[in-house]
């Protein structure tokens, strides 16, 4: 039997756990074991119970990359460089830069690392790629 109360879970998480539990029981797993596995699966997929806005953690690397990106955009705005000015190629360059590294997928980060010829990029995780590109 899983421990702890489930009041912090969303309705969607509770439905998902119930569905998973039923699936395990159909396969012959005991009721208690099925329930424990179901909640373990929900926790693995969604990170546990419902969290408020401040409950979501961001790595220091991601925070640093976001701050650096924000500062770069602020300087560009201060100097009158905005996506609405300049040539079409300048606009596409500035809009591609304005996306935060943390908002990019690992594949997009790999592509950018490939363009910059970052050594060891193929073995890097997403947070390591962000650090190397910052």
TrEMBL record:
Q: What is this protein called?
A: Rho termination factor, N-terminal domain
Rho termination factor-like N-terminal domain: which residues? 101-132
Output compositional bias ranges, type Low complexity: 87-100
User: Which segments carry the region annotation Disordered?
Assistant: 1-134
Query: What's an example GO BP annotation here?
Result: DNA-templated transcription termination
Composition bias, kind Basic and acidic residues: at what positions? 1-36, 57-72, 104-134
Pfam families from the xrefs?
Rho_N
Query: Domain of life, per the record?
Result: Bacteria
InterPro entries in the record, alphabetically? Rho-like_N, Rho_N_sf
